[in-house]
Structure formats: structure tokens, C-alpha cells
Design a protein that fits this description.
By secondary structure, the chain is mainly alpha-helical. The protein has 9 helices and 5 strands.
Length: 219
Amino acid sequence: MPPPAVPVFTPVEARVLGVLAEKQRSVPDTYPMTLNALLAGCNQKTSRDPVMDVSDAQAQQALDSLRGMTLVIESSGGRVPRYEHNIERVLQIPTQSTALLAVLMLRGPQTAGELRINCDRLHKFADISAVEGFLRELAERPAGALVVELARQPGARENRWTHLMCGTPAPEQHADARPAPSRNDVPGEFAGLQSRVEALEAAMVELQELVAALLARRD
């Protein structure tokens, strides 16, 4: 049976699905996620582009819509509902591809090199060639592409990739917009520092989520 086509998601649906895929790998102790933990992940100020202000009602509406597509499963039992994604089974893609899709949905268009760095907590790719291989598979998916390689922008050294979960990006998004700064365009020492700062910020957010989850279970 060929992989199913993917409906066009709203930005909030894409953010919710991306957060569930991210937290499954980065904070497994709090997964499946409660609505409150999911909301915190959607509205993070770090590792998100764009930064969003999703309300409880918007998150719940997105969850209900994704459940209707069987892309999200609600866990029964406990005092509050918990949610987990079902991306691999529904889209028939491997976990490596899910990691790439999640980071693209959460952080916007990126080069293969940036994706390798930003996916590190979800899946450790051996090299950039491995990232590019899975991106090509997603772009050539028989039931319809899930990612696309964007035209190289003026002054950029590498092409960026973007997801197609919210439909085809508008031409001006990748033709006229200024290119996102790449770590390849800054000195190695600064790039390494930037990467460590982002990792520390993300780890702090995840630690806060873990503490909140543990306190909720005690109560």
C-alpha cells in the first residue's frame, strides 16, 4: 500500500505535531505529553521560528484535528489526557525523517548542515550526506513530497530546505527574503558558542518541563 497523502496543516497543527515529535526524543520522561506541557513547548522562546503564542483553545483544536487524521493519539488513564504523535506509522517514514520534519516545522527553513546540528537531540546523523539522503527521500516520496529544496538566495553558500506540511511556501518566502544566518558564514569559534548557547537554552526548558511533570505526579 503506498504512503498516504498528507493534508495541509495549519501553522498551529504543524507546531503541535513538531513539539510532540521533538519531546518524545529530548524529554522522554514527560512523554506522552499533557496539554499544559505541549503548550509550553509550542510557545518556547528558544529553538522556535517563528515564536508563537498558542492558546489552550488553539492547541486543543489542533490536537482534535490531528487525532482525526490519526497523526496524534490520546492516551487514556491518569488524571489528565496525554498525547503522542503517530507520524511514522501514518506517513510511513523512518524516525530519521521524523526528526528532520520536526526540526523544520519548529525552526523554519534550514540548510542540511544546520539540520544536522539542530537534530542532534532527536537523532545523531553521521554526516551531512546522511541528512541530505533522508531529505531527498522526503522530497521524492511517492504519495507526495514532504520537503522541498529552496532556490539558493543571493550571498548564501548552501541551499535551504523547508517542509511542505502547511502547503507550498509562497515564492517571496524563499526568493526575496533575506537568508537566515548560517554557521558557515561566521567564524568557527562563534558558531560553536552559538550552538552551545542554544543547546543550554533548550536543556533549561526541558528541565523545567521535567520538574513540572514530576511535581504534578506528586500532587
